[in-house]
Input
Amino acid sequence: MARIVNMTRDALGTLTHIVGEVADLQHASSLIEWDEQVLMPPGGAELHGQMTATLRKLAHQRFTSDEVGRLLETLTPQVASLPADDDTRRTVAATARDYTKARRVPAEFVAEQARTCSAAHHAWVQARAASDFSVFEPLLTKIVDLKRQYVDFHPKEAHPYDVLMDDYEPGMRTADVNAILATLRTRQVELIRALGARPQVDDGFLRVPYDEAAVYAFATEVITTMGFDFSRGRQDKSVHPFASGIGPHDVRITTRWVPGDPLSLLFSTMHETGHALYEQGVNPAYMRSLLGGGASLGVHESQSRLWENLVGRSLPFWEHFYPALQARFPSQLGHVSLEQFYRGVNKVQPSLIRVESDEATYNLHIMLRVELEIALVEGSLSVKDLPDAWRDRMQDYLGLVPTDDASGVLQDIHWSMGSLGYFATYTLGNLISAQLWDTFGTVHPERDADMRQGQFAPLLDWLRTAVHQHGRKFEPQELVQRVTGSRIDPEPYLRYLDTKYRALYGA
Amino acid sequence: MARIVNMTRDALGTLTHIVGEVADLQHASSLIEWDEQVLMPPGGAELHGQMTATLRKLAHQRFTSDEVGRLLETLTPQVASLPADDDTRRTVAATARDYTKARRVPAEFVAEQARTCSAAHHAWVQARAASDFSVFEPLLTKIVDLKRQYVDFHPKEAHPYDVLMDDYEPGMRTADVNAILATLRTRQVELIRALGARPQVDDGFLRVPYDEAAVYAFATEVITTMGFDFSRGRQDKSVHPFASGIGPHDVRITTRWVPGDPLSLLFSTMHETGHALYEQGVNPAYMRSLLGGGASLGVHESQSRLWENLVGRSLPFWEHFYPALQARFPSQLGHVSLEQFYRGVNKVQPSLIRVESDEATYNLHIMLRVELEIALVEGSLSVKDLPDAWRDRMQDYLGLVPTDDASGVLQDIHWSMGSLGYFATYTLGNLISAQLWDTFGTVHPERDADMRQGQFAPLLDWLRTAVHQHGRKFEPQELVQRVTGSRIDPEPYLRYLDTKYRALYGA
Output
């Protein structure tokens, strides 16, 4: 018995060592990509591309080596007798899961896909500039073909799209998402129509000049209060805001100034800080293992949306922060009441563009994309018919029709990167955020009173314990079940939207 | 024959590919180290350390693999028929040279040395803070032992120190350095004594407050004029100034503000820019090969010292730039004539501290260290006697005696990092800078007139052609010989010092 224990320990040590080195390579790639987005001199692009390609390739080679397979074969039966929640057992399971998936896909396919996506991204940039889908169509067709090949490398699932979604949201099935979307579709469309029938709120105070540095300083004050730890993170500017974590002790967020939309910087900073707080809260023991990082993109998005919307667009939040904002911007906001301000930052206005859309319409943008992706992957829609299908659905869901491809089917970067199966995670994030919010409100009835006092530590502490610390230890549905008592469920989010926006619009 | 050519091409392609990936790993380490020095949040230190350790280890493993050995065995005879200056021949030779050296040292020794240096660095920090050499002594003793073991891994050279120096200055021998130092010793000590007998220059205008941002802006103006390409580089702040190049298209320099020494920022920025211009000028075709980067630390230092001193502390340089500096600092410099300013920034003042020392005394600091290192490595001096030996030599060379270890034997970081054999490159850099300067003055008689006009393009163009483009293609002595017509020679530098400083001090 002692011998078996020792063998396990040796195998575990070796596996931990290899996975740690793979994590180092991946962290290094992330850091180089962060550098590229934030401060790299333009001349460095080619060399950066080569560096990250090499690092990613070596990480993949090392992780998919036969040695890892043998270690997992040794370890899997050994850890089966450990408690279901044991970290070692979960680590071995997560490693086995990723290993099995990675081994199924031939290296040649990965290289072919990388080449296609590189060409597709280039074509997409051109197509969008020219607002001409036909420029992108051949490459998107190729990407969809590759995705279907990719699906074929894996065991057959109930729906081919299951395989794609599983990469971003482990365990999530097309049937689950379809059921969720079916519930959302009717109720959100109905809500938008009801709000649209009411007088629009006035957000004219946001259409006057604001000083970028002053908004930046205010946003920094807000995220400091939220609990962002600057000794374990940074804040910078980049063209597209993002959060990048290389372990809990070095988590970096970026933001940007959007001319004509002064508070975009604040809300996107709070959004990225939501991601960052999650990363900063993961158990440091998971740092170089496959339990590091977040449970899924959906759970990650639940953290960003919770802080951006459930906190950042709530009345109690602004009861605390609005006087400070008014003091910074007396000429713009001195005459604007808290109530007017709250209504203004929650204006609902169907838009053609996803990234400009509000809380109430956002899911409809996602729904449209997910439905089209599913249709493309199952073959019921062909790429050439995509622009028409897009227009039809926009008309159905939001009552708007894009007049060109740039503000329609070409607006998102995701497909050009081969990221099919990704979009649903945005909506799942919204749903989970409301479930967590309700649960926290139940266990901590002072939730809103705390916010009015600028007290965010109880919320962060609870999220740390309930969600953050676990990293990738639990699959998303399992985690949500553990914390909220039910699986991912659209009801709390729909209830939140209905209550908030019907009150706000008197609808 | 065709078959052999094809085999060579295949082997060359494979070797190029492997060396390219090794370069990617090394570039990634450099970038992560840059990040660490410039902007990493403090929490990231541990993970950064793990990342770079893994990247360096994988680079070493990949480079020292048997496969690389076999490829070199195939290629070396094949490229022997190519012209001596052929890039392919030189690439194979440089790769073989590095491979042979790297293979001689067991991985266990490398790990042991890394551990010792890590402990030694820690001990050195403590020892310096306490100004107590005895805290550092046991670890320095261990480092010297390891260095002697390291020497033993290599074929016997005329002097054991040859092996150590070769890592920083390929081909340089202890006998060469001793001969150079013998010439410098008498003449530099004599010069310092002559200057010391003359009235001191007045640099009181540097002892008043200056605005850091204004000096920074001026320094940026200067290096832009020098030709630093910001589209292929960056400038940041760090605790210790340095230059870091990951290929010619991404070269980063840092600077710092030294309270009480306002122009330190300017001169150190020019110094680092000298390094950066070298890196930016290397043939881009060498980017991921072993011909990338500089020929040696000495040649690198020749570029930094040339721009810092031969340009930056010259009268013609200030004839152009002084009016702009005066305009920025009217209260500090409005009443100071160009002649007074020029004398002030060239004040000679023997100091206990190397990094604070002036052009005329700098080599004496280096000489002392090189002599002590040679004695330690050959065993004629024991580590415990080092502080006394240091004091004796300081008295001989500079007429000063440190009153404590912190301002004496403990002042430099190098030994704690295991960098024995490094110091001589500082002096070699000074010597080469004067040789290049003289040669450029001969081929381009308008050298000083150009500077008076703020025209630096002819100088940079010449350095690009003569030195920069070649990267590591030529060994240092070979390069200096090609460009100046003689090997590394102390005479031009001694002549430069004598002429400049005897005139300046009327000595």
Q: What stands out?
A: Residues 113 and 146 of chain A are 7 Å apart (CA to CA). The domain at 207-349+431-471 of chain A is CATH 1.10.1370.30 (Neurolysin; domain 3).
